[in-house]
Task: structure prediction
Amino acid sequence: MHVPDAASPRVFIVITTFNRAGHLRELLSSIDAMDPTPSGVIVVDNASTDGTPDVLAALEPRVPVIVHRLPVNAGGSGGFAAGVSRGLEEGAEWLWLMDDDVVVLPDALASFRPWMDRYSCIHGRRYDHAGEPFFWQHILDESLGVHLPVRGDVFARSRVFHTNVGCFEGMLVAADVVREIGLPDARFFLNGDDLTYGWLISRRYPVAYVDAFVLRKTRAQRQVDLGVRHLNDSSDLSRFCGMRNRGHLARYLRLHGRFSPVGFSLGTLLSAGKELVRLVAVERSLAGASAVWRGWRAARVILRDPAWRPEPPLAAPASAGGTR
Result:
């Protein structure tokens, strides 16, 4: 059982970036302004073709920055797998995972500190591009294989909300937990990788969403508020991966005895329907519908693949249990 240690945590921020040099520069500047600062930063450059290498070469950071450039774009999943692995090699005790289109708030680590002696996987709150609270409060319905929104203010009665999903736009996870669960599954490429990783962690440890703002989104996104949930704009690649990766999620659910063929089929229909609503309501087009169909077909191939194996742990599993 992992026992979190917040006395003098060695925290490494892991950033995955691809062709967003301006956003990356802003993020790295915000990290230098933190108090307290992390022990280091690992930037995984996913074979960017813009000015990202120049931004990284010109750094004169207050916080040590390690640049880990990949020869090809491995997606968010592959980038975080590589970055987390490098963080473990550097002796990180905690890994704070984030995309490149956010900035950290100066007191972010101080805001996390009270929770780090209670939990091994923590998410803080985020502001959106306009400075409003960013919506993120989901629970994975295992029978459907769909993350469903929790209505209302989850912090109305408590400063912590226990969930069973993860988000790589701000997940803070203990290194020992990563060793036990394994690296993020690079096969996802993007979309659904963090949800699944959080669910795998939640099988052994509480996953906490805490009432403390630690990040602000810097990239503006079109979105629509449907009341029970928000839908942001997307891309054909994200739509394809989102549907295809249901195949990987189904295999993990099956592995842990939580797979319902009928329920998951219904969840796949709901997921496809959500993407069609997103296309109509947010992007005003149905041109991306073919990506949804191609992803659906790819998921069926994964479900039948006899060679499929889960991402293995990096260390022998500890006894079941967790922190409070």
Notes: The CA atoms of residues 302 and 308 lie 7 Å apart.
